Amino acid sequence: MTSPARRHFERVSAAQAAADAGDAPMQGEAYELMQAALFEDYRRLKSTQSMEKKAEIKREILPNYAEYVAGVLEAGQGAQDDVLLRIMLWRIDAGDLGGAIAIARYALKHSLTPPDQFERGTAAIIAEEVADQALKQMDDEGTDSLALLAHLVEVEHLTASADMHDQIRAKLHKALGYALRVANQLDEAHASLTRALELNDRIGVKKDLERLERELKQNAAKPTG
């Protein structure tokens, strides 16, 4: 386990490197050390076939990057940082949506671009990957549904003005609609699922929309007072 003094040093070093870089690409010893660690961890993940096992490995290794991320977010001026964006994606895969969104705020604010192997832009990656993870978490009994809803609302807000394929935005609205439904916000859920269907008529929400519309009609017919 890393000592508190070591963690403090890693955070301060990352913050200094991020501040020194300004809006130029990240460089310096702190960044190079993280790049080297990332390369080794990436090789380990690449040799693992099971997606479930990959997620377990990511949960195991992500704390090793926590101080670096904290330092960059604290003092960064918008330097292009492939390590930071990779960690954002790994946090999503590991189920840490809150941690991923903390990076997403910074990445979108400063228009950071994803590593070369990704064909989608940063906003599209965040929208689609968070939506996929949220839909997966909805099936888990221990999920904090209100926290999940808050994450989806923030991602929708963060990416609302970004250009992306309609299918990706549809998936985000689908996840948001389901989360709103769980929270019993039926009108808002109906609006989100309707929007998902408008963007992609094969998104798979038609039956859920029909059920939701019946429920809304039933609620409207109930006597008040």
Structure description:
With 225 residues, the chain is mainly alpha-helical. It folds into two domains: 1-118, no CATH class; 119-225, Tetratricopeptide repeat domain (Serine Threonine Protein Phosphatase 5, Tetratricopeptide repeat, Alpha Horseshoe), CATH 1.25.40. Helix content is 71%, strand content 0%. The chain has helices at residues 4-21, 29-46, 51-61, 66-75, 82-93, 97-109, 122-137, 145-159, 166-182, 186-199, 206-221. Helix 6 (97-109) packs parallel to helix 8 (145-159). The N and C termini lie far apart (60 Å).
What is the approximate shape?
A: elongated
**DSSP E strands, number:** 0
The value of Rg in angstroms is 20 Å
List the domain count as a whole number. Answer: 2
- Count of DSSP H/I helices: 11
What's the helix-strand series? HHHHHHHHHHH
For this entry, give a set of tags.
single chain; 225 residues; mainly alpha; Serine Threonine Protein Phosphatase 5, Tetratricopeptide repeat; 2 domains; 11 helices; 71% helix
